[in-house]
Amino acid sequence: MLKFCSFSLMTLMVSTFSLLFFVQCSMAEEAGIQKPYLSPARDLDSASKVSEFAWDDSRRALGPDIFFLPEALKSPMALKNFLPVGRSIGKGEALQGQLTLRQSALLINVIGALGESELALSEKALGLITHGDRIVPVPAPETVVIDQRRRFTLLFGVGRIWTEPGDRGQSRALLPVSIVDSKFGAVRNGLASFLYGDGKPISNLVLQFSQETAAEREADIWGTLATEFIPGKVEGAQSRIAAYEDRMSSAPQYKDWADLAGRFGAEAVSGFNGPLGSKGAVSVSGLIVDETVYLSGCNTRHGLYPFCRQMRHAISSMTPSFLAFVAVSHLAHRIGHDILVMTIGDLVPELANHPQWRRTRILDMINMASGLGEITPERTANFVAADSDPSAQAIRAAGTIDEKLAVAQQFPYYPWAPGTVFRFRTSDSFVLSLALDRLVKLKDGAGASLRWILQDRLFKAIGIARLQMQMSVGDAADQRVPDLGNGLYPTTGELVRLILVLRHSTGGRTLTGLSRDMVVDALDTQGDKGLPTGVSYPNGAGRYALGFWRTPIKMAGNCIQNIPSAQGRGGSVVSFMPYNITGFRIADGAPADPATRDSTDIRRIGDAVRGFCGEPRE
């Protein structure tokens, strides 16, 4: 017998930030039984049947008329309105062809501001193919390159299709979508939906964006885009379907935060997000215990995001940990650890005559100790962020490799030797990227590139079909290099895979494509390795080594552990704790608020789960 479901909202008192959504599923013989509905771990991406998410409500804010009337969508709506409705959810019609999204404008309501403005989007073509009850986007490669030539890039994820009684015989498609803003390094997550099939014209595309990682730039965006659909074979569709199947089959186990509370006690795991959680600034967070991912969040201003694993994030200055270090570690694994002592002058002849670049090593670059810059040109015991001087701003503004090289040739430099003083400076990352790209070309030929090697040899092997990152401007793929310092845009699921490939690399049992020695050294929690950062903590000085911040923490058992972490703007953090425990939080808190950087509770709960002094629990 078919079950009919309607929403009820229950607050799970496990942590100050966690909301789980449930439906009241009623049958005559099961009256009053609560059945789980949509949650971070059980989302539209993971469930086998889309009908499991149907809710019984004949009144829909997103009825069929909205799709064909461009001005009908007046304001943002609760995200549940994008989900299946009714008692008879059927199979969606097969679809294959090219969807063209006409140039148009969406409405923007900046949170805290009065009135609305518009966001102009250029025309975009997108291949689409259905695969069972999934709909798989097949974009042309050049349309998803993120660089300065196009400020806004639309990125679609794998969605779902179905039929419901109110849609007059047509099928309904729903896809996760994000807008990447290359100017500000921000990401906005939303949903895209349209009606099609039954011999009728395809509808407009309805879009709504209700969440972002864009500190102090929060905004709701919504509207419709006119479409044109041409049926036919989509080139590359089968490889995209295969990549989707690989992603699903290789996914780690996901569970909800309530499952962690049931395992270790609600009190022990409460308050994971710290002050940011109470301020509503956390997009998603979780604790990875061995191979199990306990998720919380995937919050938006209009309800739970139904594709939690495909929610995309701007991780800003966590990029050196998850892209620069990973790239160097991969090339050290492929070529040898001697690359660490190769200099920029060795690999980039255009910089061989620069007094500092010519002697700066690859190792110095991932240690944030290039010796380049001009802010505070004397040694100091305090933290120095050296990313705002004119040279740093100029290289970020430059577009092509040649333009950036011209700026790098004029970089000011400090009086000390490279590798001796820490200065946080992600603007040097272009030169590191170019050096590694030249190294790849020396080994694999002029047509190879760092981007291609990382994607084809590493990311694809761990189930990431295309890891999105900011690129320099170039007419061809081999004329572009990635921003290794500040331009990585992973989804929740992709970030989890990057964390796990680092964890797996320390075990020595699995060939991960990374240098085991480098990863073991980077994630070691013993000793005070690395250069002092100038940041003081109650239990000692903070340090930085191999792309990771190291924080001395006194655990409940009275021992000191030096926790390596990746840290991003707005309070985003990934903490690699002892005994295979990793905590992560993606947030966009106020950068100037000291509480934004507080990740104490993440480590406290990791310690409570396993115990970091002495032998681990369980």
Topology of this structure?
Elements: E1 4-10, E2 20-26, E3 34-36, H1 64-68, E4 96-101, E5 104-110, E6 117-121, E7 124-131, E8 134-138, E9 152-156, E10 159-163, E11 171-181, E12 186-196, E13 205-213, E14 219-225, E15 227-231, H2 237-249, E16 253-256, H3 257-264, H4 274-278, E17 282-289, E18 292-297, E19 299-300, E20 303-304, H5 319-335, H6 344-347, H7 362-366, H8 390-397, H9 401-408, H10 429-444, H11 450-459, H12 492-505, H13 516-523, E21 531-537, E22 540-545, E23 548-554, E24 560-567, E25 573-577, E26 581-587, H14 600-610
Parallel strand pairs: 16-18
Antiparallel strand pairs: 1-2, 2-3, 4-7, 4-15, 5-6, 5-14, 7-8, 8-10, 9-11, 10-11, 11-12, 12-13, 13-14, 17-18, 17-26, 19-20, 21-22, 22-23, 23-24, 24-25, 25-26
Helix pairs in contact: 5-10, 8-9
Report on this model:
It is a single chain. With 618 residues, the protein is of the alpha+beta class. 21% of the residues lie in helices and 26% in strands. The chain is built from 14 helices and 26 strands. The strands form four sheets. Strands 4, 5, 6, 7, 8, 9, 10, 11, 12, 13, 14 and 15 form a twelve-stranded antiparallel sheet that branches. Strands 16-18-17-26-25-24-23-22-21 form a nine-stranded mixed sheet, with helices on both faces. Helix 8 (390-397) packs antiparallel against helix 9 (401-408). The protein is globular and about 70 Å long. The two termini are 42 Å apart. The relative contact order is 0.12. Mean pLDDT is 90; it is low at 1-36.
